[in-house]
Amino acid sequence: MHPDVEERLNNLTLKTRRLIFFGITIAIGLAAGLAFGWLLAPPQAPDNAPLGQLRADFKADAVLMAAERFAAYPDPVAALRQLEGLADDPVSMMVSAMTEAEKIGYSAEDMALMKAMFAAIDENAVKEWRGGSDGN
């Protein structure tokens, strides 16, 4: 074989070996990174992020979800319990959420659901939700 052709073959195999080594190295790095991220140090939800800090549009979504559940299972106390994690006063929060929902263009059907839930929550439901007639 001609020495020039032999040198070209050696260079080609060297390049091929480098590419294979590079590919294996990338695959090992990717596997190690995924194993570390998923198995050794998976992401955790923050403990210091209370639901009350949600943006107004997300609160409106939460009120809509509670209203949809209320339409299926009309229990005003259960609706208040569902919303109590979002605010100390779920009734006031519902008013704010409905105002936000109108502002961002919720459908008339969604607004009707929220208004029906709000109308069903009376003083007795609030007292029962608070745990008694004296508000304690």
Describe the overall structure.
The chain folds into two domains: about 1-45; about 50-130, no CATH class. The protein is built from six helices and no strands. The protein has helices at about 5-40, 55-70, 75-85, 90-105, 110-120, 125-130. The radius of gyration is 30 Å and the shape is rod-shaped. The model has no long low-confidence stretch (mean pLDDT about 85).
Low-confidence stretches: none
Shape: rod-shaped
Give the number of DSSP strands. 0
**Count of runs of 4 or more consecutive helical residues:** 6
Beta-sheet strand percentage? Answer: under 5%
Share of helix, binned: over 70%
Distance between the termini: 98 Å
The radius of gyration computed from the alpha-carbon positions, rounded to a whole number of angstroms, is 30 Å
Give the biggest sheet. Answer: none
The arrangement of helices and strands along the chain is: HHHHHH
Whole-number mean pLDDT = 86
Q: Which structural class is indicated by helix and strand composition? A: mainly alpha
Oligomeric state of shown chains: single chain
For the record, the count of structural domains works out to 2
